[in-house]
Write a structure and sequence with these properties.
- The protein has about 550 residues and is mainly α.
- Helix content is about 80%, strand content about 0%.
- The chain is globular, with a radius of gyration of 24 Å.
């Protein structure tokens, strides 16, 4: 009979015996929800062709997953804390698998977006549950090593998504990129039932649903405005969403400051270890997802690699994540969190700046060093930053801590794709207009300016013209390639500047080791314990010490 974990983590007298097997289940669960965020990058051309997607449609097929994913993690992490973290993990996997099945079967754009949204809801349950369970299961002495494995899995998934999707697309339709998640989710559910012990917060009290609702409205509106505004213009919808996000954020802060048991104690942001680590996670994934977004397009549309070949060429990023993770396990205890995080941010910034050297004659070799630097930076720095964030929360708020960390990660990725993607599109359109001018009919030019993929499609149509079409098409292909290479270089310059500014901010915010004192991570842990003790004290006592 297989072992079934029935003793709650909180009631065990020693470390959970099967914690490393449980970590494998948590990492497997994390793997598929992050892969779902990157796999469609290489499936996009097939989906665009089969579904007739416009640029806006394609953006929402990708980001239909992102909005619920980012908006719900904080609330669902808190619900998992109160009722069952293992139950939340299993429920999220089931919802995620259901959305994947739906996505593999439907053939209409709206239904594909809906399926992606269902998967996003499932991912929003799964991701904070993996981190809160990890912290609950592992003793303090082993926690940094476990979080390093969790971070390395996240980096692996960034590269594995395009690779697995590319392999499937060799012989199958794009629906297979959805369906592959189902058997993995089933294995993870079985593993959760047999290897992951039950866990929930003791004496947590009532959930702050008003604060949770305000956080959902604020984050969802912010992500929507970030996606729609830069890509499709600041019309009524994006501006309204931006206003709602601002007002919602102010209302959330005001409510949380007054609530006796807030969803997220916003006073934590006054603590330098916590706020510095949150900013570091956000900036890391801003640069990584943004760079990956346009590097993948260059490999496919300019260098002509198919989906599988593109996925294989992203693997060095995953390998570099593991090298960085191995290094941080040895160096962080010696050098401290600030040294590792800031060093990683400098390396990641250098990787983005290297992409400014891209030109029309660039090959895959020109992308290799940036991918290696970005991967190494993630492995080196995200683990200690995440460890510091989680140490800022008491045991009763581990799900909220995981949700906060994961919201920073997902928001950073969404901002990277939206902002850098918008800059990429603008630079591409302007350059192509300069190069092509009046050599194309107005309608064809407008279509070609929409994206590099549309530009290549227009060239294919032009080539069908028997009267000099082949020569004109070749000229257009050259112009599209040059325009996109120019846009990659220009966008990387802006992205590198933003990353450099973020590095300076994190350098100023994160505290270093005090002479004879404690590292930032231990200071964060002490601050979290102090707040938990104050929250547990009688109301009169808290008022007396205010």
């Amino acid at each position: 009979m297989p072992f079934v974990a029935t003793t709650p983590v909180e009631k065990m007298t020693g470390p959970y015996a099967r914690r490393w097997w449980a970590l494998l289940v948590l990492c497997l669960s994390l793997l598929i929800v992050v892969m779902a965020n990157t796999s469609l990058i290489v499936a996009a051309p097939d989906m665009t062709k089969d579904l007739g997607l416009s640029s806006s449609d394609l953006q929402w097929v990708i980001d239909g997953y992102t909005v619920p994913y980012a908006a719900l993690m904080l609330v669902l992490g808190s619900i998992g804390d109160k009722y069952s973290r293992r139950g939340a993990l299993i429920t999220g996997l089931v919802i995620f698998a259901g959305g994947a099945v739906m996505g593999s079967l439907v053939e209409e754009t709206g239904l594909v977006i809906a399926a992606r949204a269902v998967m996003g809801v499932g991912a929003a349950v799964v991701m904070p549950a993996t981190l809160s369970l990890l912290v609950a299961i592992f003793p303090k002495a082993e926690r940094a090593k476990a979080i390093t494995a969790w971070t390395a899995t996240s980096g692996l998934a960034i590269a594995m998504g395009p690779l697995v999707a590319g392999w499937l697309l060799e012989d199958h339709a794009w629906g297979s990129t959805f369906l592959i998640n189902v058997p993995i989710a089933v294995v993870a559910v079985i593993g959760a039932l047999t290897l992951v012990p039950p866990s929930k917060a003791e004496g947590m009290g009532r959930i702050d649903y008003v604060g949770g609702l305000l956080s959902i409205v604020s984050v969802a509106s912010l992500v929507y405005a970030t996606i729609e505004g830069p890509h499709f213009g600041w019309g009524v919808g994006p501006i309204t969403a931006a206003v709602v996000a601002g007002v919602g954020l102010l209302a959330f802060v005001a409510w949380e400051l007054r609530h006796p048991h807030p969803m997220l104690d916003v006073r934590k942001f006054a603590e330098r270890p916590f706020s510095g680590s949150m900013l570091a996670v956000l900036f890391f994934f801003f640069g990584t997802f943004g760079a990956l977004y346009y590097a993948t397009q260059y490999l496919q549309f300019v260098l002509g690699y198919d989906a599988l070949e593109t996925g294989v060429r992203l693997l060095p990023l995953a390998g570099a994540v593991f090298v960085g993770a191995a290094a941080t396990g040895r160096l962080t205890p010696r050098l401290g969190v600030k040294a590792m995080v800031v060093t990683g941010m400098l390396i990641g910034t250098a990787g983005v700046f290297l992409l400014t050297r891209i030109e029309s004659g660039s090959t895959y070799t020109d992308f290799l060093a940036p991918l290696l630097l970005l991967g190494f930076a993630i492995g080196l720095s995200v683990s200690p930053a995440t460890d510091t964030i989680m140490d800022s929360f008491p045991e009763s708020e581990l799900g909220v801590g995981g949700g906060a960390n994961d919201t920073a990660l997902e928001l950073g990725g969404a901002l990277g794709i939206a902002i850098l993607g918008s800059l990429l599109g603008t630079a591409y359109r302007d350059k192509l207009t300069d190069l092509v001018g009046t050599n194309l009919p107005h309608t064809a030019l407008e279509t070609a300016k929409d994206s590099v993929g549309r530009g290549m499609a227009v060239a294919e149509e032009v080539a069908k013209n028997p009267a000099g079409g082949a020569q004109q098409a070749q000229a257009l292909i050259g112009a599209v390639h040059e325009s996109f290479a120019h846009s990659v270089a220009q966008t990387s310059l802006i992205g590198g500047i933003i990353m450099a500014a973020g590095t300076m901010i994190v350098l100023a915010v994160l505290p270093g080791r005090r002479r004879g004192g404690k590292p930032a991570r231990e200071e964060a842990a002490e601050a979290g314990r102090d707040r938990a003790a104050q929250a547990a004290a009688p109301k009169e006592e808290r008022l007396g010490t205010a």
